[in-house]
Amino acid sequence: MSESKKVTVEQMLARAYAIEREAQSRYADLADQMQVHNNRELAELFGKLAEIEGKHAAQIKQRAAGAELPYISPLAYRWPGTEAPENVDISVAHYLMTPHHALKMALKGEERAVAYFEDLVKIAADTDAAALAEEFVEEEREHVELVKAWLEKYPEPEAGWDEDHDPPAIQE
Amino acid sequence: MSPASSKETSDRQSIALAINGSGGAGAITAGGMLLKAAARAGLYGLFTRSVGPQIRGGEAAAILRLARMPVDAAADRCDLQIAIDWMNADRFAGELNLGPDSLVVADSDADEAPRVIVDSGARIVTLPIAALAKSIKGGRPNMVALGIAAAVIGLPREALDAEIETTLAGKGVGAITASKAALAAGIDAASEIASAVQLAPAGPAGDKRWIISGNEAAGMGAIRGGVRFVAAYPITPATEILEWMAPALVKAGGSLVQAEDELASINMIIGASYGGVPSLTATSGPGLALMLESLGLAVASEVPIVVVDVMRGGPSTGIPTKSEQSDLNMALHGCHGDAPHIVLAPTSVADCLFTTQWAVHLAEAMQAPAIVLSDQFLGQAKAVIDRPADLAFIANRKIETAPEVGYRRYALTADGVSPMTVPGTPGGQYTADGLEHNPRGTPSTAAGDHSSQLDKRSDKLTGFDYGQHWADIEGEGPLAVITWGSSTGPAREAIGKAREDGLAVKLIALRLLAPSRPEEFAAALEGVERMLVVEQTHSGQFLRHLRAEYGLPRDAAHLCRPGPLNFRAQEILSAIRELQ
Amino acid sequence: MTMDATPMSEALTPRDYKSDIKPVWCPGCGDYSVLGSITTALAELQLQPENVAVVSGIGCSSRIPAYANCYGFHGVHGRSLALGTGLKVARPDLTVLVASGDGDGFSIGGNHFLHACRRNIDLTYIVMDNRVYGMTKGQPSPTTEPDWAESALAPSGTGLRPFHPLVIALASGASFVARAFSGDLLGTAALIAEAIRHEGFSFVEILSPCVTFRPDEREWRNQVHLASVEPTDDPARAARRIMTDDGFNTGVLFSGERPAYSAATSDGPSVDAAYFEKEFEV
After folding, report:
1. Strand, coil or helix: B553
2. What is the Cα gyration radius of chain C?
3. How far is C93 from chain A (nearest CA, A)?
4. Which residues in chain B are closer than 8 Å to C93, comparing Cβ atoms?
5. Which of A22, A100, B382, C53 is the 20 to 30 Å CA partner of B148?
6. Which domains does chain B show, CATH number per domain?
7. pLDDT in tens, C208-260
């Protein structure tokens, strides 16, 4: 992370909120993609993940206890990677993907979130901010465990899961 | 003198003359000055030019008709030809059409007159045009020729002197003096020629008149109609529209972009019009052919645009400097798919203003493309016309300024026209699309959407009230001459002559070629027993259109020939007489 | 970290620039990320959606206007720059984005590309380059490698030297030339924001893999790399750099100062049509 300034409580909350909202938006987009491509199982799964992220976001907003969080422009966050840490990689989606694939993506997202908040602890502006960051670390670690458990229900599918006997269709 | 010419000495109503010369002789300049002088003297006139293929130094003929009433057609015969020289001049013979009553005044030092001129039976006299010019310091043969012309037809010297002063104002006193002297020398030399072709003097000019070409008139009509964006790609014979509009648009607060090709120019005007600005481009047949795909885009996305096609000889590169009416098929049917749009055609030089202005109004009112089929004859001829009346036809697009939630750009409405939001309007965002779409504008392959949108785009045009402007209908009679575009002028003149002979002939000159007006057309044909369709094509495009759209009977007579020569009233009059 | 006077609740987010139309691109398509980059750039600039127009041609990438909550025009194949130019000249107040693909933009649209660069028209041209004609099922495009042999139309590969859009853009006079990779959503967003801010013709080629017809492009994530040099405002220096480009450098190649195209304007107040009559009066 290229952050050298100290992160305050408000800024912590703003970032955490942004992370959840971004993740929610990403999962919602993927749910739409799956719905359009008639993968109902994944549409529902991503929809559920979006819902969960939405709840997390709402919880963080509540924590802010009605205080106006500072506006941070999308590029000003300077996330460590190419996007907000909990956003799953949209480029590895596949119209025939299975819950196993989706949850693996989600797991990576949660793990990135853990690492991000661990780094934030180190540059917290004060003890309150550090404590808040620690809380977020714990929460994200819980999410990791939840996703791991969820993932256990879906072992890696056999080869051929992405086989489609129909050729691509021309549209225009 | 023949009886016809003795009748002409005092009450001749019109005269046709030409001045030709080559190698920079300045025949065209002389012709332009003659027209302006005649206008000053209260006459109407029509001035066209015919040139060889060279860019400079080629043979050129200034061809004029001057008259006491508006002139919209080439003359049956050239009454007077003044030949500064005979180099490659047989090229003009067909266009001029000399006859036994014609007078040719040629330079004494020139070659023998070409065979075709001699064979016409015209009276040929010679005058020392070049010598006279040389005898005056700075004198030019075209000014001598101008003087000869003025004297023979009886144009007052003052009008010409005034024109010399105006035209040569920038060239200094010396040039003016020399030109006036050359003019005078020509007038004096011509006094020896018995003036069998003298025009009766014109009355006062009355209301303001203009001298304007069809292309300039189209530009004026566009500006009057509200066009404020033009994309331009030059092509003969349409370039003058774009060149006139370039500075005019800027002064009127608009803009013009020179495009890299016609594919760009039509898309630029679609983009500008989508942005809310009435837009236009002008081209000729080859350019319109390139534009057709995107014309369909304007139809499908319901974006108003105007494309002026100044038709020239086709097919392919054809005859770029001559007129023809053979783009009709392409204008009507050139788009792929069912792509109804508006097609209009002016019937005269003056009508280029009205029809282009009307085209802007119609395109904007119905959110559709309008093609204006002008042609080289109208576009490049300069005419003396009465000042065109101010019209109420301006761009009046149905714009949605306060869109509600769920705004639907292509909503199905009673008249088929759905209010359009303009970029910048909050809440009105939509994506215009060439893909078929639902009322919201979202692409759709559903049968219901396709048929309802097709109906919308068609009904909005057919349901519109075009008033009486869809055609010029004049006179009554059992015979109707049905025509369009630049063929209207000679048809009107022929009908006038027929009436003088006691024949009752009706003129139906279409201005609106698409959509068709079956009811109005049927009403126009009430009481008509015989029809003569007149068009300047090889394959009879207009007749086929009339048959397809209006069920014209199979026995309708057809006067049909391609360019490069324009119709003369005499040809049409002969055809009319044959049908009696 | 920028703090704005705008409270978070009032600011436009990237999602505010997305329409409610769900894209039909194949899941995994790079264009999803590009849409994210564009909406992120617009949110970064806080432009009002109604003042932005997205204009496109034909192809998978060209579907993008419908997915944005801005004014849009989905035009015909290859003519998006002409549409966008007409719109921008008639409505200079709008922010105009033109979106295209490698086929639409560099094949049939090639001529308009040259002249848009020449004009230096103030708009942002985003070309989603996947080195294939995706919409029509996988034919080579002008940027396809000469030995790509997976198409029925060219079963032994085209054997043709690929079109190099950055070279062409630079040579033709574009005043902002950049390359991005869809896999770097925020990096691409930053480039797009800079391109929009730049006054003049801003060209951003975005390498955007096609998962259906070019699965080999999954390798791109390992091949792209940030250019190791700073952008230059010297066309000659940029030209030297681009001639040794491996096709995977990302970042701004060239950002120069050249007056953007402006149509001639009147010195004084606008006249009405009657003004022109005296030219014709006898």
Report:
1. coil
2. 20
3. 24
4. 424
5. B382
6. 3-190 (3.40.920.10), 210-386 (3.40.50.970), 398-464 (no CATH), 471-579 (3.40.50.920)
7. 999 999 999 999 999 999 998 899 999 999 999 998 899 999 999 999 999 99
